[in-house]
Amino acid sequence: MIARRLFLLMAALLAGAAAAQDFPPKKPVTMLVGFAPGGAADAAARLIAKHLAENIGQSIVVENKGGAGGNIAHQQVAQGPADGSMLLLGSIGPLTIAPHMMKLPYDPFKDLAPISGAVYFPSVLVVNAEKGPKTLGEFIALAKSKPDAVSYASTGPGSASHLTGELFAKRIGADMLHVPYKGGSAAMPDLLAGRFTGYFAAPPTALPHIETGKVLALATT
Questions:
Q1: Cα–Cα distance between 190 and 194 in angstroms, integer?
Q2: pLDDT band at 9, cuts 50/70/90?
Q3: Running DSSP on this structure, what letter comes out for residue 55?
Q4: Residues 6+ away with beta carbon under 8 Å from 164
Q5: Domain 4-121 falls in which CATH fold?
Q6: Residue in 94, 158, 90 with CA at minimum distance from that of residue 119
């Protein structure tokens, strides 16, 4: 199974890591997040931005650019000014998975300069407590009963949660229907409404609903 890793990155058009040499810049700084507000990546970005702003003595605005599994935000930073004014809370999907799945309008290895590892999240398989399977065994049995009997949400095509779902389906020998969203905060309401079977969520997104008993955690990576 795969775990989620988020990396803090700065755009560096053409010049590689040169963008990080004169930081902070003498202009407003924006940190982009490739997922919707309210999810784990958004929460991590806002915490990092707060402490980084205190450290450099300059405010940092967090901007959410959800969609395409995070690739929209990554592209905007990759093609943005290489002066340190645009930061990115990157994710494993657009950086390591998407380049092998699709043709991207940017090169994550050349157009983005890594600054530091930031956050590590495992994935938690959660289901609707009322409508979903009650155990991992029941989930697997349902998934293997017929093609697409089970549907699972992800934070977008090529995201870590998408790859986790596909690896899980391959491991158990089943076909599961993929339902992509723009982020965990967008997927969770539909899980609560029973619109899909399961979701490989980040703990910060899942925990509040686990504690209220509205969703069940069946497994973790």
A1: 6
A2: very low
A3: H
A4: 1, 2, 123, 154, 200, 221
A5: D-Maltodextrin-Binding Protein; domain 2 (3.40.190)
A6: 90
